[in-house]
C-alpha cells in the first residue's frame, strides 16, 4: 500500500508532454498525463479508455463524430476501437484509466 498525492506528481512538470503510470489495480492502470499540444491519431483495439480532467481543457477529437471537450472534473470513456486523438491549447492534467497491456495503434494523418 502506497499513498500518493496527484498535485505533487504534476505541479513541477514543465515539459509539453508527460504521461506515466501512477498505479495499477488488477489488470488496469491509472496514468497521469500533463500536456499541451496534439497527440497523434490512434485507437486501442481491445481496451476502453476513460479520461478524467483535473486541470485545463482536454479536447478529444473523434474521426467521424463531433469532438468532446472536457473541463476539470469531467470524464468520458472512449470505447475500444474508436479512432481518436487528444489535444489541448493550455496546460492540461488528466487521468486515464485503461488496461495495463492496452495496445495502441497509430494512424497516419490524411488531408489535414
From TrEMBL:
Segments forming domain Cupin type-2: 38-88
Protein name according to UniProt: Cupin type-2 domain-containing protein
InterPro entries: Cupin_2, Germin_Mn-BS, PKS_Associated_Protein, RmlC-like_jellyroll, RmlC_Cupin_sf
Domain of life per record: Bacteria
Gene Ontology molecular function: any one: manganese ion binding
CDD domains linked to this entry: cupin_YdbB-like
Record organism: Paenibacillus ferrarius
Amino acid at each position: 500500500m502506497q499513498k500518493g498525492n496527484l498535485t505533487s506528481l504534476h505541479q513541477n512538470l514543465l515539459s509539453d508532454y508527460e504521461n506515466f503510470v501512477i498505479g495499477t489495480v488488477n489488470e488496469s492502470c491509472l496514468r497521469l498525463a500533463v500536456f499541451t499540444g496534439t497527440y497523434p491519431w490512434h485507437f486501442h483495439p481491445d481496451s476502453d479508455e476513460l479520461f478524467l480532467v483535473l486541470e485545463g481543457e482536454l479536447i478529444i477529437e473523434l474521426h467521424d463524430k463531433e469532438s468532446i471537450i472536457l473541463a476539470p472534473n469531467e470524464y468520458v470513456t472512449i470505447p475500444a476501437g474508436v479512432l481518436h486523438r487528444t489535444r489541448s491549447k493550455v496546460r492540461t492534467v488528466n487521468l486515464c484509466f485503461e488496461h495495463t497491456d492496452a495496445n495502441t495503434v497509430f494512424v497516419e494523418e490524411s488531408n489535414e
